[in-house]
Amino acid sequence: MNGLFSYKYYDTPEGHDIYKKTFVASKYAALSGLTLASWDVLMFSHPKGFAQTVGRYGFFMGPMVGMAAAFTVTTNVAQNIRGKNDKINYFLGGVAAGSIFGTWLRSVTVAVPACLLLGFAAIVKKSAVDEGWVFFPDTTMAPKSIKSVRHDWTLVKDIEELKTWTTGTKQ
Question: pTM for the whole thing?
């Protein structure tokens, strides 16, 4: 089971390990849903009792996990059926996720734009993966960063000839 928790979505090619990819995508969707549901419970809905609180968490987490699973399964099944690894597969996955979003809100008026928006967002993600774009680069601490004790906070450097003071020790 350890291999499942260390697995990354792009460790294997598209169309392979669909269960693992679905687990990874659903894991991040569940964490996002947990955050959103906690925010809702604490700030807006204020449910009374355990059952209502669990219901609010389910209201947010269920559709978000469903959207992630629908995207992953649709994208990978489209890859296997079509035999092509292109942006259309990702667009179809975004449409599947958008349709679940519209169903969650019970609105066709929301579903159609959500399908298109998530489909095009998926195309951007596919382009980023194929072309090596980095949205959030890894930052490493430089030896002389703003948090470094060796950072010089002065506006101008000292002029050695103007230093007329001594250290105070007798020699």
Answer: 0.76
Q: Is residue 140 part of a domain?
A: no
Alpha-carbon gap, residue 23 to 59, rounded angstroms: 20
Residue 60 lies in a domain: yes
pLDDT tens digits for the chain (171 residues)?
567 778 889 899 999 999 999 999 999 999 999 999 999 999 999 999 999 999 999 999 999 999 999 999 999 999 999 999 999 999 999 999 999 999 999 999 999 999 999 999 999 999 999 998 888 777 665 555 666 666 666 777 777 766 676 666 655
Q: Domain range for residue 75?
A: 2-131
102: number of Cβ within 10 Å? 18
Q: How many structural domains are present in the chain?
A: 1
CB-based contact 25:72 (threshold 8 Å) = yes
